[in-house]
Amino acid sequence: MSEKELGKNISLENYNICFETAKGKVRAVKDVNTVFEAGKVTGMIGESGSGKSVLGMGILKLLASNAKVEGRCLYGDTEISAYTEKQMDSFRGKEIALIPQNPAEALDPVIRIKKQLIEAVTSHGGAAKAEGEKRYEALMKRFGFQDSRETGRKYSFQMSGGMNQRIISVLGLMGSPKWILADEPTKGLDAILRRQVYGVLKDILCNDIKSMIVITHDVALARRLCDRILVLYQGEVLEQGDTSSVLGQPLHPYTEGLVRSLPSNGMVPIPLPDRDKESESKEGCVFYPRCPRACSRCVHEKPGDYQSADGRKVRCFLYA
Ligand SMILES: Nc1ncnc2c1ncn2[C@@H]1O[C@H](COP(=O)(O)OP(=O)(O)OP(=O)(O)O)[C@@H](O)[C@H]1O
Ligand code: NI
Question: Which residues form the ABC transporter domain (predicted)?
């Protein structure tokens, strides 16, 4: 596939996001340096609150108004973090489309399905109406809606969760984007729906879009779907590299713990933070209070991103 179809690499350089709140500053994303490669699926994993969604929404510039961003986000050589809202508006959907976590929130309950889907591509002066109609028909069939006319007349509340999930996938694909950013596509779904969503993502990967960012708690899903993995903890990317090495032979003690906590590996939980260690240091490694392999250096010094022999980057002094 050509760059025209694959899109361009998304690079983050010294990327930081903090929120100004009544209680002070919350640093949600800290010193991220990474490249999401076009043509690959990159998974962002990590526990709740680790900054996965904030990082994803940062790329798309969909952050709350109290957010402050430092550093750069590039699309190819273009600094999209410097784009105006208007520039971003035509960039989203056309280059990178979001498949949001919650279909119910993404769909407008008072507009019929078909109208919403067509407007997604015609309202920004993008595609012509006829073109939109054609794409709508084709995508609805692909996603298993045999009667696209009947379904198109419905409202989202008249459909099941699984149907709405497929509808927002169609919505994401209407603008023929190069990239998909899927935020927790399987969160809160039962096993059957999870399999369905996985099938939908696989289908998109086989037929339409090769460049994807998938945000998930679900390490098993990440292992099956992703070429590359970013492991987040308290806003930092602690380990990044190919899925097989990161999940197969984890290097960072946190990744090690995550992998050992999987049901298939005996569900050994990661120890909770050590209170004394927590109060001991604020400037050291973020994982220090929970780390079974910490050394004295981790208390007051922040590790950098060290490159391992197989090319992954690990934010841990063990690999300095
Ligand atoms: N508008 C905001 N103002 C203040 N803090 C915020 C805001 N939005 C997010 N945060 C904080 O940023 C941190 C990262 O949140 P984020 O939603 O990215 O986590 P996550 O890894 O996606 O978690 P989950 O798996 O639960 O979706 C959290 O501590 C959250 O409370
Ligand atoms: Ni999230």
Answer: 12-259
